[in-house]
Design the sequence.
């Protein structure tokens, strides 16, 4: 059996770090979107079809986070 090291792309880790600081106050709809994205990312990593560059899914979740963060902070 061959084991592969699983690496979460740096841009995703950075987003998760930012989200983590506000997760309790973010809207439920964003948290559900984030959960869906995490499932997609896990599947991509498991199937070894992820890329280290941001894709359209990452771009979408980043924009949604920006909007949610702005609503919470302002």
Sequence:
């Amino acid at each position: 059996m061959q084991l592969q090291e699983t690496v979460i792309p740096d841009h995703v880790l950075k987003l998760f770090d930012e989200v983590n600081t506000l997760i309790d106050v973010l809207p439920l709809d964003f948290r559900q979107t984030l959960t869906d994205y995490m499932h997609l990312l896990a599947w991509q990593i498991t199937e070894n079809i992820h890329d280290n560059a941001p894709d359209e899914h990452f771009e979408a979740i980043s924009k949604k986070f920006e909007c949610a963060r702005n609503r919470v902070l302002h």
Observations:
- The first helix runs from residue 10 to 22.
- The mean pLDDT is 87.
